Amino acid sequence: MYIIKRSFTMQRIIALLLLFSIASVAPAQETALLNRCWSPEQLHSTPKERIIRKHQPINNNPPEQLLYHQPRQPLAPNFAQSIRAVTPANREKLIALTFDLCEQAGEVAGYDGAIVDLLRAENVHATFYAGGQWMRSHPERTMQLMADPRFEIGNHAWTHGNLRVLRGQEIDEQIEWTQAQYELLRNQLLARACATELPENVAAMIPKSPATFRFPYGTCDAIALKQVAQAGLFPIQWNIVTGDPSKGQTAKQIVTAVLNQLRPGSIVVAHANGRGWHTYEAMKILIPELNKRGYHFVTVSQLLNSGEIITAESCYENHPNDNLSYDKLFGRGTQ
Questions:
Q1: What confidence tens digit (pLDDT) does each residue in 150-164 have?
Q2: Gap between the Cα atoms of 183 and 88, Å rounded
């Protein structure tokens, strides 16, 4: 385990200024875009959206806009490591809830909107790691997440490919196509009449591109870490596993798992794509309990700016090498 101290190189200062430009937006304006473009009824979830459906024939096409126009500057070499948590300054009680929105080739994954509705109702900041193909099949929900100042969207690869097995251009496509799909939808949102009527600084609060990346299956190696860092994305893992993809996991067990591993600067991994079991029920218990314990909910990018970043040379769930079997189980992932 390594600690990257909060040394502000010019590169990082520029990156963080871009990440937190939304701070210049007045509080009254923060939700203006979200509320102007969608009614409460349109934002509210529907149970059927959670259902995962097969998609035939498989759509292996790249995004309509293949070349994205907002490339990020490569990160310094010391960021080519898996980020597991942060030690906030003064041990401030910060926590980053993250929800994966993965979608494999040949399916249309779900949208667990009850979780999103809960986060909005409780004014909880969170990060959603969206696959590029998920964003393509859920354009309206993606734009709603973009427009909500409580939320951040991170890159979760194009079709949930296993970047520990893929190589070269295959890895680049998983990363870059997702960046391109995000930019495509951002441009479409900002071109709508509901957005063009607002002041420019309100539109500017939506990041031009995702700044962080989560590896599908939570698997990586030195080659994949280097390519993600070269793409200008912070590789984000976690230090708390909810285990919500397991059908046998109860809400109470999820709550216990989180609270037992809780520490300031934690990153929690869960799912909101129809593959998280009892996640919503667990969050209904966790959010008030964490508030009671004095924790503040932040996005991953906000957490990265709060103190010393804790990294590892490899990607794992709870202990080094505990996910090596995934390469045999999932192979190249889906493409």
A1: 999 999 999 998 999
A2: 31
- pTM, whole model, 2 decimals? 0.92
List, in order, residues 6 or more apart from 37 with CB less than 8 Å away. 143, 147, 189, 192, 194, 195
Instruction: State the burial class of residue 296 (Cβ atoms within 10 Å of its Cβ: 0-12, 13-18, 19+).
Output: middle
Q: Taking the CA atoms of the chain, what radius of gyration do you get in angstroms?
A: 18
**Cα–Cα distance for residue pair 143/317, rounded to 1 Å:** 30
Cβ atoms of 150 and 300 within 8 Å: the answer is no
Which of 55-69, 148-162, 236-250, 254-268 is predicted with the least confidence, judged by mean pLDDT? 55-69
Q: What is the share, in percent, of the chain residues with pLDDT greater than 90?
A: 78
| Residue 277 tokens, joined | 């079991």
Residues paired with residue 161 on neighbouring β-strands, in sequence order: 333
Q: What is the mean pLDDT of the chain?
A: 90
Helices in 231-311 by DSSP H: which ranges?
251-261, 279-292, 300-304
**Angle of helix 279-292 versus helix 251-261 axis, rounded to 10:** 40
Q: 164-197 burial, b if ≥16 CB within 10 A, otherwise e?
A: bbbeeebbebbbbbbbbbbbbbbeebbeeebbee
Residue 8 CA: distances (Å) to CA of 1, 23, 169, 198: 21, 19, 32, 34
User: Would you say 214 and 267 are in contact if contact means Cβ atoms under 8 Å apart?
Assistant: no
The answer to whether 271 and 261 are in contact (CB under 8 A) is no
The strand pairing partners of 82, in sequence order, are 312
Q: Is 202 exposed, middle or buried (0-12, 13-18, 19+ CB in 10 A)?
A: buried
Which domains occur in the chain, in start order? 72-330 (3.20.20.370)
Q: How far is CA 309 from CA 13, 42, 247, 265, 275, in A?
A: 15, 38, 33, 9, 29
